[in-house]
Protein backbone atom coordinates (compact mmCIF):
# COMPACT_ATOMS: atom_id res chain seq x y z
CA UNK A 1 0.00 0.00 0.00
CA UNK A 2 0.99 3.66 0.02
CA UNK A 3 4.04 4.64 2.04
CA UNK A 4 3.03 7.52 4.26
CA UNK A 5 4.97 10.31 5.92
CA UNK A 6 6.29 8.58 9.07
CA UNK A 7 8.27 6.00 7.12
CA UNK A 8 9.62 8.63 4.76
CA UNK A 9 10.69 10.86 7.63
CA UNK A 10 12.48 7.99 9.36
CA UNK A 11 14.31 7.08 6.18
CA UNK A 12 15.26 10.71 5.66
CA UNK A 13 16.73 10.90 9.15
CA UNK A 14 19.07 8.02 8.32
CA UNK A 15 20.08 9.59 5.01
CA UNK A 16 20.71 12.98 6.58
CA UNK A 17 22.87 11.74 9.45
CA UNK A 18 25.97 13.90 9.63
CA UNK A 19 28.02 15.66 12.29
CA UNK A 20 26.15 15.95 15.58
CA UNK A 21 23.88 18.97 15.57
CA UNK A 22 24.62 19.88 11.98
CA UNK A 23 21.57 20.85 9.94
CA UNK A 24 21.55 19.86 6.29
CA UNK A 25 19.50 20.74 3.24
CA UNK A 26 17.90 17.30 3.57
CA UNK A 27 16.41 17.77 7.05
CA UNK A 28 13.08 18.85 5.59
CA UNK A 29 10.07 16.83 6.75
CA UNK A 30 7.85 14.96 4.35
CA UNK A 31 5.38 17.23 2.58
CA UNK A 32 2.26 17.36 4.73
CA UNK A 33 -0.18 19.13 2.43
CA UNK A 34 -0.56 20.62 -1.03
CA UNK A 35 1.39 19.60 -4.11
CA UNK A 36 3.68 16.67 -3.33
CA UNK A 37 1.68 15.35 -0.38
CA UNK A 38 -0.17 12.07 -0.63
CA UNK A 39 -3.90 12.48 -1.17
CA UNK A 40 -6.89 11.16 0.74
CA UNK A 41 -7.44 7.87 -1.08
CA UNK A 42 -6.23 4.37 -0.50
CA UNK A 43 -6.24 2.27 -3.63
CA UNK A 44 -7.02 -1.14 -5.03
CA UNK A 45 -5.11 -2.84 -7.81
CA UNK A 46 -6.82 -4.84 -10.54
CA UNK A 47 -5.45 -6.45 -13.70
CA UNK A 48 -6.45 -7.15 -17.26
CA UNK A 49 -4.72 -9.22 -19.93
CA UNK A 50 -2.45 -7.31 -22.28
CA UNK A 51 -2.86 -8.45 -25.92
CA UNK A 52 0.62 -7.09 -26.60
CA UNK A 53 2.38 -8.89 -23.73
CA UNK A 54 1.20 -12.39 -22.90
CA UNK A 55 3.68 -12.65 -20.04
CA UNK A 56 2.40 -9.76 -17.93
CA UNK A 57 -1.08 -8.31 -17.42
CA UNK A 58 -1.78 -4.61 -17.20
CA UNK A 59 -2.10 -3.34 -13.63
CA UNK A 60 -4.82 -0.76 -12.95
CA UNK A 61 -4.82 1.21 -9.70
CA UNK A 62 -8.22 2.49 -8.61
CA UNK A 63 -8.60 5.14 -5.88
CA UNK A 64 -10.91 3.56 -3.34
CA UNK A 65 -14.11 5.51 -2.74
CA UNK A 66 -13.31 8.32 -5.18
CA UNK A 67 -16.61 9.62 -6.61
CA UNK A 68 -17.55 9.18 -10.24
CA UNK A 69 -15.30 8.31 -13.16
CA UNK A 70 -11.79 9.55 -12.44
CA UNK A 71 -9.08 11.16 -14.58
CA UNK A 72 -6.54 8.62 -15.83
CA UNK A 73 -2.74 8.64 -15.83
CA UNK A 74 -1.03 6.14 -18.13
CA UNK A 75 2.44 5.33 -16.80
CA UNK A 76 5.26 3.77 -18.85
CA UNK A 77 8.20 2.35 -16.90
CA UNK A 78 11.91 2.33 -17.66
CA UNK A 79 13.73 -0.56 -19.28
CA UNK A 80 13.82 -3.45 -16.84
CA UNK A 81 11.46 -5.90 -15.18
CA UNK A 82 7.86 -4.75 -15.50
CA UNK A 83 7.22 -4.78 -11.75
CA UNK A 84 5.11 -1.85 -10.62
CA UNK A 85 6.69 -2.10 -7.17
CA UNK A 86 9.81 -0.48 -8.61
CA UNK A 87 7.66 2.67 -8.76
CA UNK A 88 5.44 2.01 -5.75
CA UNK A 89 5.94 5.47 -4.22
CA UNK A 90 5.05 7.22 -7.46
CA UNK A 91 2.12 5.01 -8.44
CA UNK A 92 0.68 5.01 -4.93
CA UNK A 93 0.99 8.78 -4.79
CA UNK A 94 -0.87 9.31 -8.07
CA UNK A 95 -3.67 6.95 -7.01
CA UNK A 96 -3.92 8.61 -3.58
CA UNK A 97 -4.64 11.91 -5.35
CA UNK A 98 -7.74 10.35 -6.91
CA UNK A 99 -6.39 9.34 -10.32
CA UNK A 100 -6.78 5.97 -11.97
CA UNK A 101 -3.27 4.79 -12.84
CA UNK A 102 -2.56 2.34 -15.67
CA UNK A 103 0.73 0.44 -15.59
CA UNK A 104 1.39 -1.39 -18.85
CA UNK A 105 4.58 -3.40 -19.29
CA UNK A 106 6.63 -5.03 -22.03
CA UNK A 107 9.06 -7.90 -22.33
CA UNK A 108 12.76 -7.15 -21.93
CA UNK A 109 14.30 -9.97 -23.95
CA UNK A 110 13.61 -11.54 -27.32
CA UNK A 111 11.44 -8.71 -28.63
CA UNK A 112 12.04 -5.66 -30.79
CA UNK A 113 11.68 -2.02 -29.81
CA UNK A 114 8.51 -1.84 -31.89
CA UNK A 115 7.08 -4.82 -30.00
CA UNK A 116 7.75 -3.10 -26.69
CA UNK A 117 5.89 -0.01 -27.88
CA UNK A 118 3.06 -2.20 -29.13
CA UNK A 119 2.78 -3.81 -25.69
CA UNK A 120 2.46 -0.39 -24.06
CA UNK A 121 -0.12 0.80 -26.60
CA UNK A 122 -2.23 -2.35 -26.44
CA UNK A 123 -2.02 -2.45 -22.67
CA UNK A 124 -3.32 1.11 -22.34
CA UNK A 125 -6.16 0.39 -24.75
CA UNK A 126 -7.10 -2.86 -22.97
CA UNK A 127 -7.24 -1.08 -19.61
CA UNK A 128 -9.34 1.74 -21.04
CA UNK A 129 -11.82 -0.80 -22.41
CA UNK A 130 -11.99 -3.02 -19.33
CA UNK A 131 -12.30 -0.20 -16.80
CA UNK A 132 -14.23 2.34 -18.85
CA UNK A 133 -16.84 2.79 -16.11
CA UNK A 134 -14.14 3.91 -13.66
CA UNK A 135 -12.31 6.21 -16.04
CA UNK A 136 -12.91 9.73 -17.26
CA UNK A 137 -10.99 9.42 -20.52
CA UNK A 138 -11.74 13.01 -21.40
CA UNK A 139 -9.02 13.88 -18.84
CA UNK A 140 -5.80 11.91 -19.24
CA UNK A 141 -2.10 12.19 -18.58
CA UNK A 142 0.89 10.30 -19.96
CA UNK A 143 3.89 9.89 -17.67
CA UNK A 144 7.01 7.92 -18.54
CA UNK A 145 10.48 7.30 -17.18
CA UNK A 146 13.58 6.48 -19.25
CA UNK A 147 12.48 4.05 -22.01
CA UNK A 148 8.91 4.89 -21.01
CA UNK A 149 9.70 8.61 -21.07
CA UNK A 150 10.80 8.31 -24.69
CA UNK A 151 7.55 6.45 -25.42
CA UNK A 152 5.33 9.24 -24.06
CA UNK A 153 4.88 11.05 -27.42
CA UNK A 154 3.83 7.83 -29.16
CA UNK A 155 1.46 6.88 -26.33
CA UNK A 156 0.01 10.39 -26.29
CA UNK A 157 -0.44 10.38 -30.06
CA UNK A 158 -2.35 7.10 -29.86
CA UNK A 159 -4.49 8.27 -26.94
CA UNK A 160 -5.13 11.90 -27.83
CA UNK A 161 -5.25 11.70 -31.63
CA UNK A 162 -6.29 8.15 -32.54
CA UNK A 163 -8.54 7.38 -29.55
CA UNK A 164 -9.86 10.89 -28.97
CA UNK A 165 -9.07 10.92 -25.25
CA UNK A 166 -8.22 14.07 -23.33
CA UNK A 167 -10.82 16.42 -24.77
CA UNK A 168 -11.29 18.11 -21.39
CA UNK A 169 -7.66 18.13 -20.33
CA UNK A 170 -4.41 16.32 -21.04
CA UNK A 171 -0.74 16.45 -20.12
CA UNK A 172 2.57 14.77 -20.95
CA UNK A 173 5.48 14.32 -18.53
CA UNK A 174 8.80 12.83 -19.67
CA UNK A 175 11.23 11.89 -16.89
CA UNK A 176 14.84 11.37 -18.08
CA UNK A 177 13.58 10.06 -21.45
CA UNK A 178 15.44 7.61 -23.69
CA UNK A 179 15.13 7.82 -27.48
CA UNK A 180 11.74 8.64 -29.01
CA UNK A 181 10.37 6.00 -31.38
CA UNK A 182 7.19 5.76 -33.45
CA UNK A 183 6.62 9.51 -33.17
CA UNK A 184 8.02 11.31 -36.16
CA UNK A 185 7.77 15.03 -36.71
CA UNK A 186 4.26 14.81 -38.18
CA UNK A 187 2.90 12.86 -35.21
CA UNK A 188 4.52 15.12 -32.65
CA UNK A 189 3.15 18.19 -34.41
CA UNK A 190 -0.31 16.55 -34.48
CA UNK A 191 -0.48 16.46 -30.68
CA UNK A 192 -3.15 18.87 -29.40
CA UNK A 193 -1.53 22.19 -28.46
CA UNK A 194 -3.83 22.40 -25.46
CA UNK A 195 -2.14 19.38 -23.87
CA UNK A 196 0.30 20.62 -21.23
CA UNK A 197 3.86 19.28 -21.30
CA UNK A 198 6.78 19.02 -18.90
CA UNK A 199 10.16 17.35 -19.12
CA UNK A 200 12.51 16.66 -16.23
CA UNK A 201 16.13 15.56 -16.00
CA UNK A 202 18.42 14.72 -13.08
CA UNK A 203 21.81 16.30 -12.57
CA UNK A 204 23.67 13.04 -11.79
CA UNK A 205 22.02 10.96 -14.51
CA UNK A 206 24.74 9.04 -16.36
CA UNK A 207 22.32 6.94 -18.42
CA UNK A 208 20.27 9.14 -20.75
CA UNK A 209 21.63 12.25 -22.40
CA UNK A 210 19.71 15.36 -21.34
CA UNK A 211 19.49 16.28 -25.01
CA UNK A 212 16.58 13.85 -25.45
CA UNK A 213 14.47 15.68 -22.88
CA UNK A 214 15.50 19.08 -24.23
CA UNK A 215 14.50 18.01 -27.74
CA UNK A 216 11.02 16.96 -26.59
CA UNK A 217 10.57 20.15 -24.57
CA UNK A 218 11.33 22.17 -27.70
CA UNK A 219 9.42 19.99 -30.20
CA UNK A 220 6.08 19.18 -28.56
CA UNK A 221 3.56 21.86 -29.60
CA UNK A 222 2.16 22.60 -26.17
CA UNK A 223 0.64 25.98 -25.40
CA UNK A 224 2.27 25.74 -21.97
CA UNK A 225 5.34 23.71 -21.06
CA UNK A 226 7.99 23.51 -18.37
CA UNK A 227 11.50 22.06 -18.13
CA UNK A 228 12.81 21.03 -14.72
CA UNK A 229 16.29 20.06 -13.58
CA UNK A 230 16.38 18.06 -10.34
CA UNK A 231 19.54 18.76 -8.38
CA UNK A 232 21.46 16.59 -5.93
CA UNK A 233 22.14 17.77 -2.41
CA UNK A 234 25.72 17.69 -1.20
CA UNK A 235 25.04 19.26 2.18
CA UNK A 236 25.99 16.30 4.34
CA UNK A 237 23.63 13.62 3.09
CA UNK A 238 23.36 11.17 0.23
CA UNK A 239 20.46 12.59 -1.73
CA UNK A 240 21.55 12.14 -5.32
CA UNK A 241 19.41 13.09 -8.31
CA UNK A 242 20.35 10.13 -10.48
CA UNK A 243 18.58 8.22 -13.22
CA UNK A 244 16.65 6.12 -10.68
CA UNK A 245 15.09 9.13 -8.92
CA UNK A 246 11.46 8.43 -9.98
CA UNK A 247 11.69 4.77 -8.97
CA UNK A 248 14.37 2.89 -7.06
CA UNK A 249 16.41 5.80 -5.75
CA UNK A 250 16.27 5.37 -1.93
CA UNK A 251 15.29 8.98 -1.24
CA UNK A 252 11.54 9.24 -0.82
CA UNK A 253 11.83 12.88 0.19
CA UNK A 254 13.50 13.69 -3.11
CA UNK A 255 10.64 12.10 -5.05
CA UNK A 256 8.16 14.18 -3.09
CA UNK A 257 9.86 17.47 -3.85
CA UNK A 258 11.35 16.77 -7.28
CA UNK A 259 8.74 14.51 -8.92
CA UNK A 260 5.45 14.48 -7.00
CA UNK A 261 5.15 18.26 -6.64
CA UNK A 262 5.44 19.21 -10.33
CA UNK A 263 3.37 16.17 -11.34
CA UNK A 264 0.54 17.16 -8.98
CA UNK A 265 0.47 20.74 -10.22
CA UNK A 266 0.67 19.65 -13.85
CA UNK A 267 -2.24 17.23 -13.45
CA UNK A 268 -4.38 19.81 -11.66
CA UNK A 269 -3.61 22.45 -14.27
CA UNK A 270 -4.54 20.06 -17.09
CA UNK A 271 -7.63 18.50 -15.51
CA UNK A 272 -9.20 21.57 -13.90
CA UNK A 273 -7.68 24.45 -15.86
CA UNK A 274 -6.77 25.98 -12.52
CA UNK A 275 -4.75 29.18 -12.71
CA UNK A 276 -3.30 28.47 -9.26
CA UNK A 277 -1.75 25.24 -10.46
CA UNK A 278 -0.16 26.95 -13.46
CA UNK A 279 1.18 29.67 -11.22
CA UNK A 280 2.60 27.01 -8.90
CA UNK A 281 4.45 25.41 -11.80
CA UNK A 282 5.94 28.75 -12.79
CA UNK A 283 7.21 29.31 -9.25
CA UNK A 284 7.97 25.72 -8.21
CA UNK A 285 11.72 26.31 -8.30
CA UNK A 286 11.65 29.51 -6.25
CA UNK A 287 13.83 29.35 -3.17
CA UNK A 288 11.77 28.84 -0.03
CA UNK A 289 14.46 28.59 2.61
CA UNK A 290 14.24 24.81 2.84
CA UNK A 291 14.99 21.73 0.77
CA UNK A 292 14.56 22.69 -2.90
CA UNK A 293 15.92 20.29 -5.51
CA UNK A 294 14.27 21.83 -8.58
CA UNK A 295 15.43 24.40 -11.09
CA UNK A 296 13.03 25.65 -13.77
CA UNK A 297 14.84 26.33 -17.03
CA UNK A 298 13.33 28.37 -19.85
CA UNK A 299 16.24 27.66 -22.19
CA UNK A 300 17.69 24.33 -21.03
CA UNK A 301 21.16 23.23 -22.08
CA UNK A 302 22.96 19.91 -21.48
CA UNK A 303 25.09 19.75 -18.36
CA UNK A 304 27.67 17.38 -19.84
CA UNK A 305 29.11 16.24 -23.16
CA UNK A 306 27.47 13.24 -24.82
CA UNK A 307 30.36 11.02 -23.76
CA UNK A 308 29.24 11.36 -20.13
CA UNK A 309 26.07 9.36 -20.84
CA UNK A 310 25.56 5.70 -21.67
CA UNK A 311 23.01 6.69 -24.30
CA UNK A 312 24.13 9.86 -26.08
CA UNK A 313 22.11 11.91 -28.53
CA UNK A 314 24.07 10.89 -31.63
CA UNK A 315 23.29 7.20 -31.62
CA UNK A 316 21.91 5.12 -34.53
CA UNK A 317 18.95 4.16 -32.31
CA UNK A 318 17.93 7.81 -31.99
CA UNK A 319 15.66 8.48 -34.96
CA UNK A 320 15.38 12.16 -34.02
CA UNK A 321 19.14 12.64 -34.36
CA UNK A 322 19.10 11.54 -37.99
CA UNK A 323 19.76 14.35 -40.51
Write a brief caption for the model.
The protein is built from eight helices and nine strands. By secondary structure, it is of the alpha/beta class.
Description of the structure:
By secondary structure, the chain is α/β, with parallel strands linked by helices. It is 31% helix and 20% strand. It contains eight helices and nine strands. The protein has helices at residues 5-15, 88-96, 113-130, 147-162, 185-190, 210-219, 252-272, 275-282, and strands at residues 43-50, 53-63, 70-76, 100-104, 135-145, 170-175, 196-202, 225-230, 294-296. A nine-stranded mixed β-sheet has the order 1-2-4-3-5-6-7-8-9, with helices on both faces. A hairpin with a 2-residue loop joins strand 1 (43-50) and strand 2 (53-63). Helix 3 crosses helix 4 (147-162). The radius of gyration is 19 Å and the shape is globular.
**H/I helix tally:** 8
The number of distinct β-strands equals: 9
Spell the H/E element sequence.
HEEEHEHEHEHEHEHHE
The biggest sheet, with number of strands, parallel, antiparallel or mixed sense and barrel status, is: 9 strands, mixed
Q: Which descriptor suits the 3D outline? A: globular
User: What would you call the quaternary organization?
Assistant: single chain
Strand order of the largest sheet: 1-2-4-3-5-6-7-8-9
Question: Which structural class best describes the helix and strand composition?
Answer: alpha/beta
- The CA-CA distance between the termini, in Å, is 47 Å
- Low-confidence spans: 1-25
Beta content comes to 15-25%
Give the rounded overall mean pLDDT: 88
CA-based gyration radius: 19 Å
Helix content: 25-40%
Amino acid sequence: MIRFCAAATAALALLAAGPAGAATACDAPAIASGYGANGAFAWDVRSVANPGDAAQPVQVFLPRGAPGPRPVIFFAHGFGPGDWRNYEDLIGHMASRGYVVVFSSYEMLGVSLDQRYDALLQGDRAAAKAFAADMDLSRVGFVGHSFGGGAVPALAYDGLVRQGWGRNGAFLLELAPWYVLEADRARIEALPPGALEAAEVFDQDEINDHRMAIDLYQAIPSSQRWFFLAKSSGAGCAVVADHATPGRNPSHIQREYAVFRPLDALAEAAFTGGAAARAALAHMADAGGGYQPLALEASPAPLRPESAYRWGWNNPKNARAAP
